[in-house]
Amino acid sequence: MAEAGAQRRLVAVNRAAERAGLKPGMSVADALAIRPGLKLAPHEPAEEDALLGRLAEWCSVYTPFAAPDLWREGTGSAGLWLDISGCDHLWGGEAALLDDLIGRLDRLGFTARAAVADTPGAAWGWARFGAGGVVAAGETREALAPLPVSALRFSPEITLGLARLGLRRIGDLYPLARGPLAARFGSVVGRRLDQALGAEEEPISPLRPPQSLQVQRRFVTPIGRSEDVAAAVRFLLPRLMQLLERQQLGVRRLDLSVFRVDASSVRLAVGTSRPTRDANALFRLMALQLDKLQAGFGIESLMLAASVAAPLAARQQDMEEGDAAECLSEMLDSLGNRLGFNRIQAFAPAGSHLPERSVRRLSTELAAATALPEPWPDQRRPPILLSRPESVAVTAPLPDAPPLLFRWRQTLHRVRRAEGPERLEGEWWRDQNPARDYYLVEDEDGGRFWLYRLGLPGEFNPARWFVHGLFA
Amino acid sequence: MPDLAQLRARIGALEGLPSFAAGRPAEAVPLGAAAIDDCLPWGGLAAGGLHEIRAEKADESGAALGFAAYLLGRLARARRGRLMWLTLSDHVHAPGLAGLGLPVERLLLVRPTRTADLLWAAEECLRCKGVAGLLADIDGADFRSARRLSLAARGSGVPGLMLNRGGPLGSALTRWQVGSAASEAPGGVGVGAWRWHLALTRCRFMAAGEEDRSLQWLVEAKHAKGGFSLVALSGDGSVGEAGQRRRAG
User: Fold this and answer.
1) Do A365 and A389 reside in the same domain of the chain?
2) Which of B61, B93, B179 sits opposite A385 (nearest CB)?
3) Among A154, A186, A217, A298, which has the highest number of CB atoms less than 10 A from its own CB?
4) Report for A67-76, A129-138, A256-265, A448-457: range of highest mean pLDDT
5) Strand residues in A94-144 grouped as ranges (E)
6) What is the DSSP letter of B187?
7) CA distance B112 to chain A (A)
């Protein structure tokens, strides 16, 4: 709770220290004089910000609009913004929501002050300088009047400047003309006042864009068994599907946010290759992820959201074909979610005549989009292409003749038949690859290989040969 | 031997195996070579079961893979849906598969990184009615996994080709051993059409005592009138006999 500087000062104090008369801004020497046994900890703003971020995430239990508030000037304490419009009834009113929030934070070891008001600015001031709690709708003006002007989020310089003019209370600002104030302090004084009183809108930018496509379930007693989590997901899915159906949407990405009692949260996500509203299929996908879930000290709330949705019209296929297509996309989704969607590939011819560059690997989605079959080359190509051509020792009678003998992987192959050469030029625009002369050769046992000699006949001496593929 | 045939049919129906499930003849996909199809109790490869394909010698992976790709192409011709190819390796070359009559535009290659994932994925594919055929490149499978695959195929009617380098699969309906054979080129110039030694070393529902007897053919795969097809050039003496046995059953 101290900051290193020219002089070490307190940045924040806990309740016990406050009772002992310590205040933020006090020098450490003074504080130690008052309380010799004072425990000090260095101030680490980055960690504090990160903690606030996590708390804000956890607060999405209450509202989708939650964000950390990192304004520290004037009071020294950062906080959290929660826009609870339309959410308080879920908790039995604003006061009940506030009690619940403070109670939970207290159990987690945080001393929190909280306020609810018509505007973010008023709530900010009332939490830090007022009595805390709920400021009833429409009573903001009176409630704020007796508070010091720093409750309007001014920098210390402005507060000091206002104090020199004898303006100490927010109420002192109400009757003043804006023009001279703006001339002296800039527009910030008028703006903060307007924001606090609701004359100017001040939106809270949430951590994540809020989603209407989400459903939530809270538990009276925290749950921990994976069966219980699965049951809750099963319960939530059809409700989410109803929301989607109303808007003719299907899920492309499903997020399950798990809120634990220790204010930590995890998010599990599954993707689908095309929009779906099939609760059973989505459950099976999510079930694969649930194995990984650590319940920790218990889970108090689950939120299921269709974070990516796409239009899904009613089906008009004939039954059997529709079923087959449906189960195919389900199957591909389950494969993709476990193995990774990049592990499922389709093939298309690429514009290169070099064997290793002649095939494009497409994602399944792309493959579905480009259904037009393109022709493959007419020449004989092996079904097995070694990812790296393997060098072989060869006996060839002439530089431009197929080999008579070659040794590959410790086995000697006597060539009985051969076809070629098929000359594939190097792609000069890529690098200086020499040409390759390919031969299809068959050994005495009928084994068929794709060999090539690097370079034009006689270009390399001795000639360099490689096995590149195996024929059927 | 009608009594024996009836008994076999009843046992098969009790086991719920393809071709003998009561009143429902199993869907079968012909290999394209009449001499071979006639030897199989289903008149072709039974859908809804596993078919194992093995290389005659360890280093003849090209022939076994080629034959498997050919069979997958036959399944594609007879059935609707996607073709799934599951493998841990990365050496499958699409133009070569196209040359074996496989419609590559319907093919999806799935490349898990672990054997356990591959077997799991194979089971998922076999359960799915939208799959025309599955080819899994495996290195053996434990008894339980093999049984699960077989049950999945039976449930959905999807045929599964197991290109197996490991120990034999007990639950397969048929087992094929493939080796490359010397080709014959017209005029003796160049390399001719692909030829394979094909052996059927296991087939369920052959006559009693015949299940593990090997039937052998020399086959050639080439472009014919009806598309890419297999021709049996010669087989062992039991071919005609086996055909009669099937008709009796």
Assistant:
1) no
2) B93
3) A154
4) A448-457
5) 115-116, 133-134
6) G
7) 6
Q: Going edge to edge, which strands form the sheet with A299-311?
A: A214-223, A299-311, A249-260, A265-276
**Which helix (H) or strand (E) element contains residue A282?**
helix A279-290
**Residues B55-87: b if buried by 16+ CB within 10 A, e if exposed:** bbeeebbbbbbbbbbbbbbbbbbbbebbbbbbb
Indicate which CATH number applies to the domain containing B11: 3.40.50.300
Does residue B77 sit within a domain?
Answer: yes
pLDDT, residue A294, reads 83
CA dihedral for A376, A380, A384, A386, sign (positive or negative) = negative
B185 at A interface, C-beta within 8 A: yes
Question: Is A323 in the same domain as A435?
Answer: no
Residue among A326, A345, A338 at smallest CA distance from A286: A338
Domain count, chain A: 5
Q: Could you tell me how many CB contacts below 8 A there are between chain A and chain B?
A: 177
A373, A377, A387 ranked by CB distance to B90: nearest: A387
Q: Judge: A471–B96 Cβ closer than 8 Å, yes or no.
A: yes
- Across the interface, of B66, B92, B103, the residue whose CB is closest to A472 is B66
Structure letter (DSSP) for residue B56: S
ipTM of predicted complex: 0.85
Q: Which residue of B lies nearest to A344 if distances are taken between CA atoms?
A: B110
- Domain containing A19 equals 2-34
Looking at residue B24, its pLDDT comes to 41
Residue B99, chain A, CB below 8 Å: the answer is: yes
Which residue in the set A324, A416, A419 is minimally distant from B129, CB to CB? A324
Question: Using the beta-carbon criterion (under 8 Å), do A376 and B221 form an inter-chain contact?
Answer: no
* Minimal C-alpha gap between A419 and chain B (Å): 5
Question: Judging by beta carbons within 10 Å of its beta carbon (0-12, 13-18, 19+), is residue A256 exposed, middle or buried?
Answer: buried
Q: Which residue on chain B is closest to A329 by alpha carbon? A: B130
Which amino acid belongs to residue A470? L
Q: Comparing C-alpha atoms, which of A316, A372, A335, A352 is closest to residue A428?
A: A352
| pLDDT (tens digit per residue) in A312-357 | 765 544 455 667 777 888 898 889 888 988 899 988 888 788 888 8
Residue ranges of B 138-177 with Cβ closer than 8 A to chain A: none
Where is average pLDDT lowest: A40-49, A414-423, B71-80, B228-237? B228-237
> CA of B55: which chain A residue's CA is closest?
A472
Whether the per-residue pLDDT at A247 is higher than 90: the answer is no
**Under 8 Å between Cβ of B138 and A372:** no
Q: Could you give the dihedral angle defined by the CA atoms of residues A457, A460, A465 and A469, in that order, rounded to the nearest 10 degrees?
A: -70
CA distance A312 to chain B (A): 20
Chain A nearest-CA residue for B114: A339
The answer to whether the CB of A323 falls within 8 A of the CB of A340 is no
CB A414 within 8 A of CB A403: no
Is the pTM higher than 0.95? no
Domain count for chain B, please give it: 1
Kindly tell me if the per-residue pLDDT of A464 is higher than 60: yes
Query: Contact A421/A400 with Cβ under 8 angstroms?
Result: yes
Average pLDDT, chain A: 83
Residue of A nearest to B178 (CA): A472
